């Protein structure tokens, strides 16, 4: 993992009035880490193009290499060739997963299905992010997974259990959808041994549903079709086995797109992002609809989105909103900062998962928006934001959360000076974010 942060310890944002231009998006984090794992578990070699290069994908790549998977650089810088092994060649490894939920959760499930001697750990915050619901499900199957520190959290030790997939397993879906995603992705590794279908039942409410849809879509491209009954039961067929599709093009990241689409909505525009559009398999493209309800004009093609809007620096306002953001938890942070420019109080509902992500995002967002002069009320699962009557200059803490840094860049359209602390934390998913941002605003 590169620690070469291209940014200084803090960044004083230039006050800006307008935004326009076109951005070719970096690859989707969620798709990149899924297809890296799927390719590693598939028969054959997969050429992955458009892969994201950031902390989250680097920890996944390093883990796969440590597990004995052959990964070669492709002909282009954003291309790798992954040669799959249906089992990981290395039976022992210590794997550092940074703060990447999309790496540690699916890998834990895959390693537990195979058995071996593995340790998975991460940065201190990763050791505060829950994984107990996944571990419970894996143990129910007979896998061996032990906590090395606090019960319910990484670091984890995976041992040699004997997962038995002939009975259904239950997993809770209310804390993170990544636990269900992890079980789905890993199931074909053990289902072959049983000669029977394997059922996963979801207990309680499932959050962040579009990410599960993305998992199913990508599994299909690798030859495994999962049958389902709504969101409560998923059946992986007997004999399921991953086969390389040969080539996979990773879409641009729809969550990263949200910052630029927001720039078009508050800086006049037009701002166009390329790499995601109408044909995307990422739920966060629905953020374009959120912008529409705030008054922005949105156009979409198969693989691009363009926004135009008002100029908030000239005193224009976005329309206030009150909405359920459970389906787009990541892009929802962008909406929270846009509330600074709304014509009335705004509310984000059903976002409890924010509390267990890179930081407690409800608390972090409340703290930093308040510094700028907004009135913010938080509940366990919602945030109400009244735009500032009088803006105040602020040093914005980013809480080691890439999205805090990226979405607060939108505060530069306000009348007060804004300093972003530790802007380098964007390296989790978008190492060059502030350069791209700088190319769009004036
Ligand atoms: O499966 C995925 O790729 C993701 C699922 C979401 O997490 P939750 O299911 O924990 O909300 C999202 O916030 C995360 O950035 C990526
Ligand atoms: C929640 C996020 O990441 P993770 O994949 O680590 O859960 C995120 O990127 O906003």
Automatic annotation (TrEMBL):
Transmembrane segments: none annotated. GO terms for molecular function: 3-phosphoshikimate 1-carboxyvinyltransferase activity. Its EC number is 2.5.1.19. SUPFAM superfamilies: EPT/RTPC-like. One of its GO terms (biological process) is aromatic amino acid family biosynthetic process. Its main location: cytoplasm. GO terms for cellular component: cytoplasm. Keywords: Amino-acid biosynthesis, Aromatic amino acid biosynthesis, Cytoplasm, Transferase. Pathway: Metabolic intermediate biosynthesis; chorismate biosynthesis; chorismate from D-erythrose 4-phosphate and phosphoenolpyruvate: step 6/7. HAMAP family: EPSP_synth. This is 3-phosphoshikimate 1-carboxyvinyltransferase. The lineage of its organism: Bacteria, Pseudomonadati, Pseudomonadota, Betaproteobacteria, Burkholderiales.
